[in-house]
Amino acid sequence: MDDIYLDRPNLYIGFHGCEKKVGIDLILHPNRIHMSAHDYEWLGHGFYVWENNYDRALDWASNHYPKFKESFAIGVVYTLEKCLDLTDKHFVELLSKDYPEFLIDLKRMGAPIPQNTDLKGKPNPSGVLRYLDCFFDRTFAFFKGYCRKYSLF
What we know:
Oligomer: single chain
Number of domains: 1
Distance between the termini: 33 Å
Shape: globular
Mean pLDDT: 80
Strand content: 15-25%
Structural class: alpha+beta
Number of strands: 6
Radius of gyration: 17 Å
């Protein structure tokens, strides 16, 4: 794929599902974004949004995290720039190609290979702790130079 199609300078609108007090704090202090940094998150560390989908963000906040006292969704304007877009065939193929090499490198270094764990419970309500996925995604993004930038509105 030609590199000209890999950068995405467009602005996108997304929605972040959270607890109401977190959403209000983001509105009042837009530069204080709490980046999720759990080692079990499928897509790695970051600030998650549902693209163009307020209802899905609110649903996630209500159902995925029932511990929230008051569910909330806040609008976010962001640019993907150099993004690891898992809806794009190019990036899926790139990950598929690099994953076996990643495992070989870990074995060569004698480093433990993180494992995904199916808990069906806490601390991740989805039931799967994705340690391997998170570690691979973070490592891949670091070495390939992918990042995300957000602005709240």
